[in-house]
Every structure is written in C-alpha cells, then in structure tokens.
Design brief:
single chain; 280 residues; alpha/beta; TIM Barrel; eight-stranded parallel beta sheet; 9 helices
Length: 280
C-alpha cells in the first residue's frame, strides 16, 4: 500500500491562492472526493495534505480545512504539512499553538523567495526549533538552489528535512550533471530525506520510464531506500501525467528493489517520519 506525502487540494470558495492566476492549467478546484476515487483504485491508503501556498492570513484556515477532511468517515487524510513563516518574529508562538493532531510537518516554499531567505539568522533559529518539536521541514527548492538546502540542513542538524520532487530536476532539458552533483552532496547530510514526487512534471511531454530512470536511479544510489518517501504532487503531476499513471510509473521505477525496500519508500518511511508521535 502507498502513503502519499504530497497531496494538494484547492477549494477556491474557501481559500485564496494568489499564485493560481499564473498557473491557468491548475486554476480550478481540485477536490478530495475526485482524488479519493483514483487514490483508492491505485492503492493509496494514507495521505498528508501539502500546503498550497495560500494567502498568508489564511494559513490557519487551510489547517482547519484539512482537519475537516480528516474528520470525514473513513478519510484517507492523516494530517497536514502546514505553511509557515520561519522568518517571522512570532514563529515560536505560532508553532506552540499548532494542533499537533493535524499539523505533522512544516513547509515554507523557497523557490519563489529570494535565495538569502533561508540564510537569515532568525529563519535558521526557527527551523532549529522544529527538531525538538518533532516536525520535519519540507524543502521546496529549484535544482540550482540545492546548495542552499545543504547549508540549511547543516545549520539545523537536529531537524529532519525532506527534499520535495527530487530537487526539481530539469529532466526535459537534460541538465543531469549539475543536479546529480548537488544531490550527491546533499545526501551526505544524514538529516535530509528525499521525496519521489511528481517528477513527470519536469520531463518532456513524451516522457517514458526510460526518461525518468537515470534520475531516479541516482536518487536511489545517493540517498538509498531508507531515506526516501513517495508523493503524488497531485494535481501538479497532472500537467504531464494522471495520478494513476504516476503511481504505475513509480511502481515500475522501483521494481528492481526488494519488497522491504519498496515498502519503506512507498509507506514505511513516511509513517516513521511524520506519524511516529501521533497526537503529540
């Protein structure tokens, strides 16, 4: 079975997503009900909702939205990876007030922010708070920004980091060498995990398993199955594939591993990282 650690849901009647105007292919509602139908058919049994960069004053409302989904009978949703502002002076108080039954991790989208944001002393101080709090931090970086992720992981060695989308490689452009070198360097940090999530979105329109295999093989070689998790990145994955298609591709890309290794990537590691302190 599969633990999806990266589901985005959009409800424009309830929340505001300022970035949607620049993403016409995604500019509509993406409901839990529609996702659930395909997820259950594809073997997905557990899901974390990934923040969708809502307007800053609606971060709490997005968490409430996820809590409502969790309360549905037989819901697949196990919690939220919440948006946050670690650069803010009030972050510590904000963190203490989170409902840990819902909030399982934190993300601050960095690829749309100035590169020096994660190097600010207050940002790093607040990221260090996540380690003792038992909250992983998802790294959302472009491939060229991967060294920033390494610096942040070094600055907060007790915090677990999860690199989204394998570091957003330029698969379509074939920019393998610089990405691979940065991934190799980042993997030397034992507090960094990597997420195999929706990388079809970064390939050419006619991508195939052969297109993706070298990139996934490099991630497996550097991080290993014990430090990988899986995510759909739905609905972003729909830009180049359907959800079921990405699930099938992932199964095929991992087919050469042992059953225990596949289970670790597809479910076991996620439960250990995000759910081991359930209800904290």
């Amino acid at each position: 079975m599969i633990f999806d650690t990266h589901l985005h849901l959009l409800d424009r009647s309830r929340l505001c997503y300022p970035w949607l105007t620049g993403a016409p292919a995604l500019d509509r509602d993406w409901s839990y009900s529609d996702y659930e139908t395909v997820a259950r058919r594809s073997g997905i049994t557990d899901v974390l909702h990934m923040e969708v960069d809502v307007a800053e004053d609606q971060i709490g409302a997005e968490t409430a939205f996820v809590a409502d989904l969790m309360a549905r009978p037989d819901s697949l949703i196990r919690g939220a990876i919440s948006s946050a502002r670690p650069e803010a002076a009030g972050f510590a108080a904000w963190l203490d007030a989170r409902d840990r039954r819902v909030v399982r991790g934190i993300r601050r989208v960095l690829h749309v922010m100035p590169d020096d944001l994660s190097e600010q002393s207050l940002f790093r101080e607040n990221i260090r708070r996540l380690g003792p709090a038992g909250l992983p931090f998802d790294l959302c970086l472009l491939a060229r920004q991967l060294p920033l992720g390494a610096h942040l992981a070094d600055a907060a060695p007790e915090t677990i980091f999860v690199l989204d989308h394998c570091g957003v490689p330029d698969i379509a452009g074939g920019a393998f060498a610089p990405w691979a070198a940065a991934i190799t360097d980042l993997a030397r940090r034992p507090n960094v995990m990597i997420k195999l999530s929706g990388i079809t979105a970064y390939g050419p329109p006619d991508w195939s398993l052969a297109t993706l295999t070298p990139w996934v093989d490099h991630v497996l070689e550097t991080f290993g199955p014990a430090r990988m998790v899986w995510g759909s990145d739905s609905p972003v994955c729909t830009l180049q594939s359907g959800l079921a298609e990405w699930v099938a591709a992932s199964q095929a890309l991992l087919a050469g591993l042992s059953g225990a290794e596949r289970h670790a990537i597809l479910a076991g590691n996620a439960r250990q990282i995000w759910m081991s302190d359930s209800g904290k």
